Sequence to fold (639 residues):
Amino acid sequence: MALEYVGEILLPRLFAASVQSTLLVAVVWALCRLLPRLPATARCWLWWLVALQLVVGVLWASPLALPLLSAAPETQTLFVPSQPLAATIATNAAAVPPSFPQASSLPSALVPLASAWSWPLALSVLWLLGLGLMITRTLLGYLATRRLLRESVPCRDAALIQALNLAAEAHGLRTAPRLRLSHAIGSPQLIGPWSPVLMLPAHRLPSLDADELDMALTHELTHLQRGDLWWGLLPALAQHLFFFHPLAHLAAREYAFAREAACDAAVLAGNPHCAGDYGRLLLRLGVATRPSGGLASASPTFLMLKRRLLMLQRSASPLRTSALALTIAVAIFGVVPYRLTAQAAQPVAPAADSAPAAFPVPVPVPVPMEIPIVMTASQAMAAPGIVPAPPAAHAPPAAPPAPSIAAAAVPAAPSAPAPPLVSKGSWMHSDGDYAHVLIDGDTTHTVGNSDDLRAAKSQQRNGEALLWVRKDGNTYVVRDMATLRRLQAAYAPVAKLGEEQGRLGAKQGELGAEQGELGTQQGQLGALQGELSVQLAAAVMRSVNTGSDAAKAEVSAVERRLAALGDQQEQLGREQQALGDKQQELGRQQQALGEKQHLAGEAAQREADRLIEAAIANGLAQRVTKKDVSPTFGFQFLP
Fold:
């Protein structure tokens, strides 16, 4: 089950999000490259949005459809009355494809192999293995961080603790992080989003003067003030889910760099003339690996350290409003998942000219397993003036076979509208420990399952109205008429909307019957066209062989009859189209009523819950015991 979920749902989402992230990464990278004075905070958010787009792409079940692809032309086997006869017969004779083997001729041993293993299954296994390796790596980093904490010691320097408290208060923090010293680290590290701990390198503290220590503390407290350890969990999650995607790792790396640069900018904002001193401090702290996602420390690589030093030489752009607007625009247009779809195809009927109708011989379409390709009446309606093709005949048959054409098939009746929510009542399925059934004559309103409905009817006496409730393991019956009247009034709008839906359904059924009758007429005309096509083929061959005027006159007469049948088919197609438009309008009305009924049902449900609570509290609800249950229904409720 897990592999099926990964192969059928997760993998397509992962692929779609990977493709969309490519465009988003290109946009963000171009913005950061073309706008060198863009604030580091804006850069940080832009790269964070890339990680958000990846995660949202996995969780979002229904991407927005963008109809940007060109519509594929519809290929149908059509009967075009204006097509020249000689060209049609010659084209068909030259284009007959070779026959294809049927499915039964394939080796049966190949079927289990194809069903036992597939590419989606293999990719699902590989993805789960890669995700497991990423989780294992993260757990090892977490354990290494916990080991560092265990080996560290609390700071006993009162002056340092006081300086940390003052700095935390200046940054607007309610409490300062715990301060610990460690000999195993070379730079300050802020660990853990839940209970943050600031670890300082014990062997470097004596060499740091007051200004350097103040800048180091300011940098780490800025991380805490910005909530970087919390926000950083999302890029880490994107890296785990998209471990195969290089751009996911690029986004996480660029986010980490921009996050450090933003904290560096905050330090320099409070000490604008100490850029040189701060750069020397970064060099002294050097490079430190980052073993866990919930940790902020020095630069993890020499390249990132170099980039941070270069960023110190640049002044951020004062246009913070523009940077905010740019970030919001990227969030709106780049994060939401999109799906490219084809534009709606517009069927175009070939223009009929004044040439006499000719016998068309359609080119057979090769299809595996020899599935017949037919054109339904609904497809014929989509292209007025075009009627389905008759069966191919390469030579005059000895006896006209029964035509096997699409037009002879009665068109499928329009899909029946979804049954209304209320038909002499309403029904809402529930398998939980709560259910209720309101019985009022032959109308029932049920929130539960079929067993609940049977249990409620077992408590009915001589067709009386009652409310049956199952709640918290107990069963109750309410026969108080005042409560029942209020509950009936709550369900009245739902029942009324259900009646309106029933009337619309009846109209849709009448229209469906009319469409069925038209389809029958179209099928009969199609059968006649098939018979005339066979006659026409035989007359054409006699005219070619003998060249007599009688044969030519017979060809002309049959062509005129086929043209007349084609006009009748076109008229029936227009009538079918009009009925289809009416069906669509009724369907829209049904949908609107369904939405209204859903809202009315929710309101009725809330009122029913309130009345049931009041009835139980006021003693109007009688508890049903085991002896009160009718044994004919095969179940019981224990007190």
